[in-house]
Amino acid sequence: MQQAAVEAGPAPGIAYADLVTRIIALVLDGLILFIPYVLISLVLSFISFGSFVAALAYAGASAAYFVYTWTKQRASYGQKFQRLECVNAADGATLTQEQAIRRWAFLFGPNALVAVVANFPIWPIAALGSLLGLVVFIYYIYLLYSASQSPKRQGFHDVQAGTVVVKHL
User: Fold this and answer.
1) How many CA within 13 A on the CB side of residue 15?
2) Antiparallel, parallel or unpaired: β 14-16 and 84-88
3) What is the pTM of this model?
């Protein structure tokens, strides 16, 4: 797979973020969200449908975390650690709430859906979780591919939300 040539940065001292740096930021954010998820799961494991409720809570917490950090701080904590910002692709402005929700939905929504479906309390629906997981895995490969082919390193999720991730040099 050959990557597209990266355009010059949108402003002096700023470059379009490379995929490896973005993936590291994503892993860091995953670790940040993992701790509360484990605590919530432990508490809810003692009630009926606890794993389903935990999956719903995790989806909500993930959405709240990313929408808040992208709209109020221009970057999640994992992105900040990597000196990244998620901004409006048109003018570099802070994301609107609608953009942040749309970006979360296209980037993390599929994974949240798999978690909820896989933990659904009714077996036939829960069984679809594995199949859906495979479809989402292919979707994430597409997101990586789309970002690697874009001169501004915009993945499909970025294009749908009108966003771009930049790195401060």
Assistant:
1) 10
2) unpaired
3) 0.89
